[in-house]
Amino acid sequence: MKYLVTGCCGFIGSHLTEKLLKNKNNNVIGVDNLSSGNIKNIKGFIKKKNFKFLKKDLNDKNLKKKLKKIDCVFHLAALSDIIPSVSDPKTYFKSNVQATLNLLEIMKKNSIKKIVYAASSSCYGLPKNYPTSENADIDTRYPYAFTKYIAEKTIIHWSEVYNLNAVSLRLFNVYGPRVRTVGHY
User: Fold this and answer.
1) Does pTM surpass 0.90?
2) What is the pLDDT of residues 103-115, one digit of tens each?
3) For labelling alongside 21, which of 27, 63, 74, 89 has CA 20 to 30 A away?
């Protein structure tokens, strides 16, 4: 199988990429613009023959040519802090919504039919019940939550219109080795 992992230098993306590469039959292309990911997170496998790293932004118009014959996309790339999104919503929209739309267009043009998206539980705002059901009310209080939710809805819409196999995972407070320990969170 050939996989694309966006945000491969981030906390979750680096672990997923590492896991995929353990199967020698898998090939992985990792894309990260390093705006919040860290190249150190992929140092253990950056030189593997079945891995190719592209330091690119998903809004790069030339990316389409480099993403051919992909079997499945894991879309983890995003700006992820709530507080900075309030002061800079335009950057979050470009990173989380426009980049997702660009990725979907690349998938359409290159006949890539599967995507797994790392959505966010922040779309629930401050939920009334814990644990929170996926059927809880949506309350996108902050630009970060709004952009992640709009990207999720865009992927779901594209899956219906363009016959993509799409899964959206609303992740809650993921933590572990290689997690960022700086920033507002």
Assistant:
1) yes
2) 999 999 999 999 9
3) 63
